[in-house]
Every structure is written in C-alpha cells, then in structure tokens.
Amino acid sequence: MKLTIARAKEWMLTFNQRIQEEKDHLTELDQAIGDGDHGLNMARGFQEVVKKIEPTNYDTLDALFKDVAMTLISKVGGASGPLYGTAFLRLSTALKAESEANREKFVEGLKAALDGIKARGKAHRGDKTMVDVWEPVVDYVQSQSTIHLSQLNELAKEKMEETKDLEAKMGRASYLGKRSIGTIDPGAASSYLLFASLADCFQKGEMD
C-alpha cells in the first residue's frame, strides 16, 4: 500500500472527524493540567484544514500537507498549532514533488515530522508530551519492513495511556509538578487520534 493523495486527504478528514468527536474529552484533559483549550483549538484548526483541502485538487503530497501546515499555524492558538503545523510542514518537505509515497518515503516523512516537533517544542520522550506517542511510533515504523497498521494503532494508544503516569516536564503542566501525574497528556491524546485515523484509512492493513 502507498500513501496516495486521495488517502492522505482521507487521513486528514478522518482525523478531523475524530477530533470533533473527542473535542470535549481533549478539553477536559487540558483543563486538568494545561490551558484548557487543546480540544477547542484542535477542533477549530482541523475544521479549517478540511475547508481548505477538501475542495482542492492536488498534484503532489507536499502541496496538500503544506496547506495543512500553514492552515494550522495561522488558525490554531496555543502550542498545538505551531507543533502540528511544524510536523506537517516537515512531512511536506520530505515528500516534495511526490504524488504518492511508499513505506520508505512515508517513514522518512514521519521521522522529519518528529524531528520538527522536538526542535520546536524542545521536548524529549518522558516529558509527558506528544513526543511520547510520536517517538515510539516513528521508532516502530523505522524498524519494520512492513508496517502493520493495527500494531501501530495499538502502540500509539498504549503510549498515550502511559503518559498518565508521567510527571510533566514541559509547558504549563510542568508547573503542577507531581500533581500532573494521573492525567493523560492532551497532546499525546490527539497524537493517538492522528495515528488511529491513519490506521483507519489503511483499514488496519499493512503498508509495504
């Protein structure tokens, strides 16, 4: 299976649907340890993404993901806009001039996206951020000759849930110290939804 323009667009539309459905839950998580706006910001931002990309015909993946990135950077407040925007901008750059991406190229793009998130947010694995989902997922896809999307989905969910036991080291949540333990990180939760949406678009099959 390859990441085609049609499937990439479906991925973003599915992610938006998941975000809209989980908006209140993401907000509740962020109210517990952050600014309380993650769900609303993500819902607003990806609604704007859908408005931008759904009616647009793209010839290359990088053009699509660049539109996703720039929409998020311009429309989403807080930390989530710049972080997700940077991720999709780096993914766009990695897939430049490609009309479809095989496993190797897509993995290269995901690695570039993770590097962008880490550079922008200065976070590392274990800091109770979206990196705690992104890095294990990228490590998994880099280590596999065939990506099993059901395993990727399960891994992302497991790593999201593990952030509940971590003490926040970054952002507003870090001000709570040990009181941040016991709540799933909202950025990790939305990142899980991103990868779950990817798995759905491939119907939990395989990516060769």
TrEMBL record:
The record's section on Pfam families has: Dak2
Q: Name one GO molecular function term.
A: phosphoenolpyruvate-glycerone phosphotransferase activity
What positions does the domain DhaL occupy? 6-200
Main EC class the enzyme belongs to: transferase
- Function recorded in the entry: ADP-binding subunit of the dihydroxyacetone kinase, which is responsible for the phosphoenolpyruvate (PEP)-dependent phosphorylation of dihydroxyacetone. DhaL-ADP is converted to DhaL-ATP via a phosphoryl group transfer from DhaM and transmits it to dihydroxyacetone binds to DhaK.
Q: Keywords of this protein's UniProt record, alphabetized?
A: Glycerol metabolism, Kinase, Transferase
On subunit structure and binding partners, the annotation says: Homodimer. The dihydroxyacetone kinase complex is composed of a homodimer of DhaM, a homodimer of DhaK and the subunit DhaL.
Q: Write down the SUPFAM superfamilies for this protein, in alphabetical order.
A: DhaL-like
Protein's UniProt name: phosphoenolpyruvate--glycerone phosphotransferase
Lineage: superkingdom: Bacteria
Which reaction equation describes what this protein catalyses?
dihydroxyacetone + phosphoenolpyruvate = dihydroxyacetone phosphate + pyruvate
The record ties this protein, via SMART domains, to: Dak2
Give the EC number(s) listed in the UniProt record. Answer: 2.7.1.121
GO CC aspect terms: cytosol
Under InterPro entries, the record lists: DhaK_L_YcgS (IPR012737), DhaL_dom (IPR004007), DhaL_dom_sf (IPR036117), Dihydroxyacetone_Kinase (IPR050861)
> Might you name a Gene Ontology BP term for this protein?
glycerol catabolic process
Q: Which PROSITE patterns match?
A: DHAL (PS51480)
**Pathway(s) per entry:** Polyol metabolism; glycerol degradation
The gene for this chain is dhaL
